Each structure stands twice: as C-alpha cells, then as structure tokens.
Amino acid sequence: MRRLPALFLLALVAACPPVMMRPDAGTVQPMEDAGEVEPEVDAGRQRYDAGAPDAGFTTASVGTWCRTKALAACLRQVRCLSVSEGALTDCVVRTAETCDQVAFTMGADAGRLVFDSARAVTCLNAYAEGSCSLEPPACAAVFSGRVAVDGGCVNTAECGADSFCDIYTGTCPYRCRAFGKLNDPCDFFRQCDPTLACYRGDGGTGEICQPIKPSGASCMDFDECGPSGACITGQCVARRADAGQPCGVRSSYPFCAEEFFCRQDPPAMEGEEPPPGTCQRRAGLNGTCTGTGTCLPSLRCSTVITTGTCLARARRGELCGSYADCEDGLFCSNVSQRCEPFPGDGGDCDYTSGSSGRCRPGFYCQYFSSDERRCLARRAAGEDCDYDQMCLSNECEFGRRADGGFGGSCGIACSLKADAGL
Prior knowledge:
The protein is an alpha+beta fold. Among the domains are: 6-144, no CATH class; 384-421, no CATH class. 12% of the residues lie in helices and 23% in strands. The strands form eleven sheets. The protein has a three-stranded antiparallel β-sheet, with no helix packed on it. Strands 13-16-15 form a three-stranded antiparallel β-sheet, with no helix packed on it. A three-stranded antiparallel β-sheet has the order 17-19-18, with no helix packed on it.
C-alpha cells in the first residue's frame, strides 16, 4: 500500500481539530502471508517503512468523537485492504453518519455522561492492529453513565452501571430502568442484570431473572445459557469459539469468530453430523482460498469455486463476481459485473438489476413494484414515513397526522429536541 499523501491526511485531521497525529513514522505495508500468522491479525503480516509504527492518535475530544472514531475505523479498513486510500474520505462520512454526535456532546456537557480522553486515545489506537472487524475492547470504557434509575437518558451510555436506557418508552428523553434482580419478572423490555439470564423456571409459565447456566448444563430455553451461550438440544454450549478452540460440537455450535473457520473431518456416515473441529484462521493476503468465505473477511478470493488466491477487495470499475468482492461502499453490479458506488437520488436499488436495497448516505430504497426499487432522499421532520430508515432523524413516529389520518411521520432525533425533554 502506498503512503497516504501528506496533504490528504492533513485535510482529514483538519476536519477534527482536537485530534492530533504525530508525523508519520512509516505507513503500514502489507506483505505476503508467509505461513504462520498470529491469531486475530489483519489482512497480512505487517512491516513499516521506517522500522517503527505510526505513533497514532495522541488526544481526543468528546466534541468530535463520532468523526474521530470513524477516521480510526476507516484507517483500519485501509490497513485491512477493504477500503482503498482514495475512498477514505467517503468511508469516514459514511461511518460517522451512524453516530449521534449531538447526543454525546449534550450528555457530556450536562454531566449525564463522562468522557475519558485517555481511554479514548487507547480505543482509537487499538484500531491500528488486530481484528479487522471487531470493535476494540478498549472502546467499551470510553464513556460511563451517571444518570440514576428512573432518570432521563438520550444516549444508551448515559445510565449508571445498575440500569439500562429503555429506548422503547415512546418519550423523549428515554428512561433509565433498573436491571432486574434474581427472580424478578423479565421480558424483551425488562432486562435482567448482566450476571443473570431471562428464562422460565422449571415448570413455570412466566420468565424471571435466574442464574446463567454454564456450558454443559442441561437446559430448555435458548437464553438460559446467557449471551455467550446457547441451549442446543437440551444442553448449554458456547455460541462462539476463537482460534484453536473446539467448534461444531453440537448442531454446529459453537461457531467460529468470523476471522476463522471450523476445520472438521467428514462425518463417519452419510446423514450424521461431522465430528467436532477446531477454529483455524482464514487465509490472509496472497494465501490459498477456495471461493467466498475462505479468506479473511476484509479480503476476496480470486475464484468462486476452484483454488485461488486471497486479494484486496476490488475497487470502483474493477471486475467482481459477488457482493463481497468489492471494497466497502461499493456493490457488485449484476449488469456490468463491476464494482460500482451505491446509487443516489433515483438510482436503481432493485435486487436484480441494482444495488440490492442499498443506497448511498442520505438516501433510502423505495419499493415501487416487484421489479422496480429506487433510491430517494431521506425525509425531513414532519414528512410521511413507513419506517425509520426513510427519515433523516432515523425516527418514524406513528400516530395522528396533521390531516387527521393515522400513520407515520418523520420525527426529530431525541438529542435534537429542546433540552432533549430533560
């Protein structure tokens, strides 16, 4: 990968004034995967131009958190070869769009949310290594909530450790609800303490908060085994496994994390399940592959069925064979068999001839008929809507309309309402 032009990096950093980066000590260069590779690494082993890694981010501000984090995530996608250098700016815009900057800024200013700048820097720099798809664990500690139980919340991170932000209240602000304790009733809206699981007791009819059952324990309900486990044919098993761990032990569970695959021997007899396997890393850059899903998620295989080579994602205008062949922000056109940008106003988003329901930021895919779907601009507050994605605020509120009829109207994001209703 070529060094990012200095002026280009300066332009990106200028968009986030409080975020400073030290002079580039060397841009990461992917090199051929020569065999043994550390688990959870990116598209290929790395070397550095000047013998040392880029010093990275040194400060961070809550006021520019969404764009700064988007920049870190997109620089990772460049490192992982799923986004080209020329598409970095578009990636930052597209990624930041899903983050409510107003909510973070307002929450911190009002004292409902505490921003830890040192942990934020650690989070941002953690994107420079390791997994190409998972959020770095360090990012979970950047914000901490200070709102007490029954207090108002706008951001899901604003509630204290003993509660959660109930975003289904239909009000603004939402409310911090206390986690259910042992034997408290629970359901989709009433969450149990993270150390408990919501399921029916033996012979019971309603769900209550109960201890999470360990792997290997007998069970009846899927959720008895907690968020990291699953009840499969009467026994708790792990949902996910990492490198070198057993996989496919019981009805394909546990599954391997997405950067790995489950290597299993064939079943002893036709119709039987294969024996348990182990999770092994998918092929990296220039590694051997045999079609879609056999390379690391940020790469593509040069062939669909036969043995091929893991390559960087195809860029705009390059040939492709499937959706996953194109770099992020592009789709593989069924018409041209080339990677094209997601369409905008009036663009074809049909599943046969277009972008399979995807549009570029600021647009949504509108159904007209069984063979026609078009991208239209997302709607402003007060305009009619059928679902959230039609609205700029991502909030379609149902009730009586101004004309007296009943239906959906685009609302205003809770964070943008006067004082957020607090």
